[in-house]
Amino acid sequence: MAKNVNLVGRNLYDLDTYSSAEIETIFETTQVMKSIIKRDYKKIPTLRGKTVCTLFFEDSTRTRISFELAAKRLSADVISFTKAGSSLKKGESLQDTVYTLDAMGVDLYVIRHGCPGTPALVHKYSDKPVLNAGDGKHAHPTQALLDMFSIWEKKGTLDGLKITIVGDILHSRVARSNCIGMKKMGAEVTVCAPRTLMPPKIEKVYGVKAEYDLYKAVQEADAVMALRIQMERQSEGLFPSLGEYSQKYGLNKNVLEQTKDDVLIMHPGPMNRGIEIFPEVADSEHSVIIEQVTNGLAVRMALLFLILGGKAAKEVK
Q1: Is 259 a catalytic residue?
Q2: CATH class as words, domain 141-293
Q3: Is 63 in the active site?
Q4: Which of 185, 203, 262, 255 is nearest to 226 (CA)?
Q5: For 80-132, what is each residue's pLDDT tens digit?
Q6: Which one from 3, 39, 89, 90 is the annotated catalytic residue?
Q7: pLDDT tens readout for residues 132-164
Q8: In angstroms, how far is CA 254 from the centroid of its own chain?
Q9: What are the structural domain ranges in the chain?
């Protein structure tokens, strides 16, 4: 484990403010947490008496359940907040909502919101740590951490690996956070998409390679991650049809045959089978998609543990 790494009280808006040593510490702690959730008795008392509040303003299955279960596995109390049925529907501001929750003794906030920058705004109203569970098209750092951990665990490192991310790069907060984190850990990242779904100047901004030919993009990759088409974030049609997109950019058997023998196939979920990824690839021996879900729980346990508990991984019992 990297020495002199202390994450107590830290916010997590995106991975740009975390060093490679800090990310490595998160990975090592995640390994310990993963061993805990695989045993018969899956709970440890390290965060007993702490309260975690999940503030979700967008629909979510994996991320929300993962965070709430992570807190419960560490024996923390959980306040599950949604806009529906709350005082926000009556006109209360986010500021006053946070003030109210603070007065109830919340120790850490996990927030998902459609507006970029909302996690930082929550921290403006509270001195408690805030973890970003997805803010608009901006960032999704815990998803990136679990994606990176899934590769790190299988390959032993990210340094020098070639990783391809294919799909709706333009609208993907997952892609942005992964580009930052993977590059920070020494990986060579290629992003692949139709030109209409590729952000301008992405090569210059993130230091990645942009490729528009899927077959070229996957040939040398150690890991290939598909992203879904985010129709809910698109204001206009950016390709002729889902069928045409699938033919050119869907991960199918023919694409898989162009990859390395030990390639890892990934997807952050939810999957649209038959569009960005086909069943014969999603369910192949190369796929770590289901394991990514398990790793997501372990990563979020590690973050809560390090930020609220402050112990090194070797102290986890």
Answers
A1: no
A2: alpha beta
A3: yes
A4: 255
A5: 987 665 566 556 788 999 999 999 999 999 999 999 999 999 999 999 999 99
A6: 90
A7: 999 999 999 999 999 999 999 999 999 999 999
A8: 28
A9: 15-139+295-315, 141-293
- Catalytic: which of 63, 118, 190, 259? 63
Tell me the one-letter amino acid at 309.
G
| Beta strands across the sheet bearing 209-211 | 209-211, 188-192, 162-166, 223-226, 264-266
Is 190 in the active site?
A: no
Known catalytic membership, residue 90: yes
Tell which residue, 120, 46, 114, has the closest CA to residue 83. 114
| Residue 140 known to be catalytic | yes
| 15-139+295-315 and 141-293 have identical folds | yes
This model's pTM is above 0.90: yes
- Superfamily of the domain at 15-139+295-315: Aspartate/ornithine carbamoyltransferase (3.40.50.1370)
Closest CA to 284 of 264, 306, 312, 300: 264
Of 10, 62, 72, 137, the active-site residue reads 62
